[in-house]
Design brief:
The complex is a heterodimer. By secondary structure, chain A is of the alpha/beta class. Chain A is built from nine helices and twelve strands. In chain A, a hairpin with a 2-residue loop joins strand 11 and strand 12. The longest helix of chain A has 16 residues. The radius of gyration of chain A is 19 Å and the shape is globular. The termini of chain A are far apart. Chain B is mainly alpha-helical. In chain B, 79% of the residues lie in helices and 2% in strands. In chain B, the strands form two sheets. A two-stranded antiparallel ribbon of chain B has the order 1-4. In chain B, strands 2-3 form a two-stranded antiparallel sheet. The chains are: A alpha/beta, B mainly alpha. At the A-B interface, strand 8 and helix 4 of A face helix 1, helix 8, helix 11, helix 12 and helix 16 of B.
Chain lengths: 259, 400
């Protein structure tokens, strides 16, 4: 008997007024697996992430957590289940140091006073488990590079011991080297047995770390692909929804252009 | 292990360098400026650094300084409170009317006045954080409204004289004549500083984390010790440790602990550094925002009581004039960022020391107020320019 997936969505549907943002979307995330969620702008990626994270509610559909149907009505529900979300804008406080940001809102205290030493120790433990290299956890995050900030944001999401992590465009604003850092981290998280949903525009990233690619188009599932056995062109065609259109006919993989 | 330590050393150097440029060590320029001001005035008039003048200076800074400490809280979340002058005047008059005209016990009148300040702050905070009116406008309305209420309370009596021997008058009048008190407080302060650093180091060593070296702790303790013992020595040359200064220092240190060592303080900084990030991390930003206005207005009343104590009266002019501007300027000159998230209560202490030193020096030299305003204005501008430059540098640095 196979282990049930960590997270499974079935027939998730969401309307905004007359606009159908999601229609009967299915998605499955297993432990130790990176699923790339791909799609054009307005395909419904963000809406789907919000539904999973409990920020907005689906009109219809079932969310199953480890085989059991669950209700995710508020962000807190998702957090309690073990779903962590890292949004694109990171939501870090620039003036606080790495430790301060990691423990913001869940400070460890001793007799009412911040236990800085314990928080710093746990921060170091967490960072070294993930082989994240931050020269000093006591510098304000404003002083870190974009890639380091991204890894701090991801590390923060891991403090609550989640099982599934949603990463919203984690490499969108990063250079090549910093992108590599973040992708390495994603791989290490997978090796620790986390299920990861990676929202990305970037075929290169997806090819590098994802096991599966789930493509959304106009709010509907438009194919699941095994990234290792599928060509760029097939996935791109699925995203644009036009097999044999101008893009594919030109023969060059347009995904490369995004690098 | 050796390489690990080297990295830590490098990291430490980086922290220091970064803090210098990010305003965390914003006190360096102020301290430098303060020393410069003292040297200049001393060279122009040898009475400036006399124990008598310094002792008076140390009492003069307290009223406005306490108000500035409250403003630090509001500035930390990136907002401004323009009402503190009026609120301080209102608080002083409230106290005077309750105590002198209605015969309420002094201690009770003090508590009622401070609680009125807290309530006023809660009202400001409510309109800003809940209703969404810009703090600038809310507190501008407060500036007018509360001074109106103060005049209403005073009614036909333009001035209420306080009891010369009363509790409030004692606040700025009492000096601990015994030299042992000033030295004892200095010794206690130094010892507490040393023990706190030492315990932190031991705790860190027990958990195998990077820590300050013993020699660094010793050096820092020495610096602190030299400063406080020198201050105690000078104060003992005149009339001893002023009660007002002792209260001021205790309040500044206590609120500094609140801001930097408690979850509440951490959240105040977080809201100032990124309100949206703080909200997503589960911080109740509405509550934090309301609370800082409550602190600001409460401290305004406390400061107002000290100002009234200095002249043993509350009148129509209480809390008017340059009080508001001096209080805000003190916080900013001391290194509190107007953009939120940077600065401590010690910034207010240093800032008010700068402003009051200029005032005192000018008065000694017999320079008219006009020049004094211009110079204080220049110092304020310089402080804000430094803040902006640091911020720009930080932005460029952070995005790199």
């Amino acid at each position: 008997m196979a282990v049930p997936p960590l997270l499974a969505l079935r027939g998730v549907t969401k309307h905004f007024g007359a606009v159908q943002a999601l229609a009967d979307v299915d998605l499955t995330i297993r432990a130790g697996e990176v699923v790339a969620l791909m799609g054009d702008n307005g395909a419904g990626k963000s809406t789907l992430v919000k539904v999973i994270a409990g920020v907005s509610l689906a009109d219809r559909g079932v969310i199953e957590w480890q085989g059991e149907p669950v209700h995710v009505r508020r962000p807190r529900d998702a957090t309690h289940l073990g779903i962590a979300t890292v949004y694109q804008d990171l939501a870090l406080c620039d003036n606080l140091d790495v430790v301060g940001n990691l423990f913001l809102g869940r400070e460890i205290r001793r007799i009412g006073v911040l236990d800085e030493v314990e928080m710093e120790r746990r921060t170091r433990d967490l960072l070294s488990t993930l082989a994240i290299r931050i020269p000093n956890v006591r510098v304000p995050v404003a002083a870190l590079s974009g890639g380091q900030r991204q890894t701090v944001a991801i590390a923060r999401s891991l403090l609550g011991d989640p099982k599934v992590v949603l990463l919203d465009e984690p490499t969108a604003s990063l250079g090549v080297q910093q992108t590599a850092q973040v992708l390495d981290l994603v791989e290490r998280m997978r090796d620790h047995g986390l299920g990861i949903l990676l929202i990305s525009h970037n075929m290169g990233d997806v090819k590098a770390v994802a096991d599966l690619a789930a493509v959304l188009r106009l709010g509907r599932n438009n194919g699941f692909f095994n990234v290792n056995t599928t060509s760029h062109e097939q996935i791109i065609a699925s995203i644009t929804g036009a097999t044999g259109d101008a893009v594919t006919r030109r023969g060059s993989p347009p995904g490369e252009a995004e690098w | 292990m050796v390489s690990g330590r080297r990295i830590d050393l490098k990291g430490h150097a980086e922290t220091v360098r970064h803090r210098m440029s990010s305003g965390e060590f914003g006190s360096f320029p102020v301290v430098l400026g303060l020393l410069l001001i003292w040297v200049i005035f001393q060279s122009l008039n040898s009475n400036f650094l006399s124990p008598r003048n310094l002792s008076n200076l140390s009492v003069d800074i307290v009223g406005t300084g306490l108000i500035a400490v409250g403003i630090v809280f509001v500035l930390l979340v990136g907002e401004i409170d323009l009402s503190v002058g009026s609120v301080s005047g209102f608080g002083a008059v409230m106290f005077a009317v309750l105590n002198v005209q209605n015969g309420m016990a002094e201690w009770l009148a003090v508590i009622v006045a401070v609680l009125c300040g807290t309530a006023i702050g809660l009202v400001h905070g409510f309109f800003y954080a809940r209703v969404g009116v810009p703090a600038f406008v809310v507190t501008l309305a407060g500036l007018l409204g509360w001074s109106g209420l103060m005049l209403y309370l005073l009614g036909t009596s333009g001035t209420v004289n306080l009891d010369d021997e009363g509790l409030v008058a004692t606040l700025t009048r009492h000096y601990f004549g015994s030299v042992a008190v000033a030295y004892g407080v200095a010794a206690l302060g130094t010892a507490v500083y040393f023990l706190a650093s030492y315990r932190d180091r031991r705790h860190r060593r027990a958990t195998g984390m990077p820590r300050r070296s013993l020699s660094e702790i010793a050096l820092r303790t020495c610096v602190v010790g030299v400063i406080v013992f020198a201050a105690a020595y000078v104060l003992n040359q005149f009339r001893g440790l002023p009660l007002a200064l002792l209260i001021f220092l205790v309040v500044v240190a206590g609120l500094d602990l609140l801001l930097r060592r408690t979850p509440y303080g951490r959240r105040v900084y977080a809201v100032g550094g990124g309100a949206e990030a703080a909200r997503r991390a589960g911080v109740n930003i509405v509550r934090v925002r309301i609370s800082v206005f409550a602190v600001s207005a409460s401290m305004a009343v406390v400061g107002g009581l000290f100002l009234a104590s200095r002249i043993t009266s509350a009148s129509q002019t209480s809390g008017t004039g340059l009080l508001l501007l001096n209080a805000i300027a003190a916080a900013v000159i001391g290194g509190v960022s107007l953009f939120g998230g940077h600065g401590t209560t010690w910034s207010a202490f240093l800032g008010i020391l700068v402003i009051q030193s200029i005032g005192s020096g000018m008065a000694l030299l017999g320079i008219q107020a006009a020049v004094q305003f211009m110079i204080t204005g220049g110092v304020l501008l310089a402080a804000v320019v430094v803040d902006s430059l640091v911020r720009q540098a930080q932005k460029a640095h952070g995005r790199a």
